[in-house]
Write a structure and sequence with these properties.
The structure holds three protein chains of three kinds.
Chain A lengths: L2 E5 L8 H8 L5 E4 L14 H7 L4 E5 H6 L12 E3 L1 H10 L2 E5 L1
Parallel strand pairs in A: 1-2, 1-5, 2-3, 3-4
Chain B lengths: L5 E6 L8 H12 L5 E6 L36 E4 H6 L11 E4 L5 E4 L1 E4 L1 H9 L3 E4 L1
Chain C lengths: L1 E6 L8 H14 L3 E7 L20 H12 L3 E4 H7 L4 H7 L10 E4 L2 H9 L2 E5 L2
Parallel strand pairs in C: 1-2, 1-5, 2-3, 3-4
Helix pairs in contact in C: 1-2
Classes of the chains: A alpha/beta, B alpha/beta, C alpha/beta.
Chain lengths: ~100, ~140, ~130
Amino acid sequence: MPMLHTVNKSPFERGALESCVRLAIKGSSVLLIEDGIYGATKGTTASDMVENAMKDLDFYVLGSDLKARGVDEGRLIDGITVVDYSGFVKLAVDNDKVQAWL
Amino acid sequence: MSDTKKFLFVNRKAPYGTIYAWESLEVILISAAFEQDVSLVFVDDGVFQIAKGQDTSDLGIKNFSPTYNALGDYDINKIYIEKESLEARGLTVDDLLKLTYEDEDDDWAEKDSIHVVSSAELVEIMDQQDVVLSF
Amino acid sequence: MKFGIQINEGPYTHEASTTALNFVSAAIEAGHEIFRVFFYHDGVNNGTRYTTPPQDDRNIVNAWSELAEKHDIDLVVCVAAAQRRGIVDEGEQERNGKDGNNIAPGFRISGLGQLIEAGIQSDRLVVFGD
């Protein structure tokens, strides 16, 4: 059953994204929100992990949190989809359940 | 639709530094009254919640770890610990509280509630749930 | 679809309540129902009407109250968490002999069972926290 995972922690400070990637079943979706959006950027110490995980998981990032932090969409890892809050709601609907990696 | 759902409580935080572990345990105990199918997962620093030998007497914070022993009496006996999280923290199952329950279907035999599982097994267990509460 | 929402952090230290507010607004706009918003841990601090942010900041407590009134949303503050943190309604004021109360409009104080019930009754439970 597909699951939506939300991650709201920067991968440079906390292990939430790493744990999510380790424990999310293939075919799940991961939405990066709040400070979690830093995990969506390329050329970082975390981007290899994310790019690797993208073979099995679909990655999304909340556009409002990117914009708030001055992160240009051009800095995102290729293949990560930017969504707005209604996209967040749609992801929650389209998956059977939601897990927050707090 | 049946009113019984599979509830999973995911515990990822150490005790005492923040209140999440304690207040999570309060939710878990309340959930028992609703006759749902409850499982607990301890991953990452959450494994420290059920470490043996906790003594908070110097802090003045209540040592709530004995309460985990009561879970078996509430029919909460599916407690999964991620092996990789334990190992990363230099722990084995012997460092954890011994949590048991009496199996009414097996002449009230005392059984372990704690199951140490690999990440791969945990992925499957988490996939089978209906509601995931994270603390 | 019916959503249950759990909020674990107060209004200003963490973004959690703001994200939840935006999520709930978007869900309502998309025609979904919010079965309940349950405030736990420091999340109970979203429920005090004494909140007075500076004029150039948003008032998150009022935003929840207004959303609740407009869309008839059940905002529940956990009683045990609220007692620890001094969030009081009239009933709690009387029961615990306090000299006042501070619950914001549209919020009510109730037990943890309300969270489990939200998990049972909702199609999706979405948790916001730290």
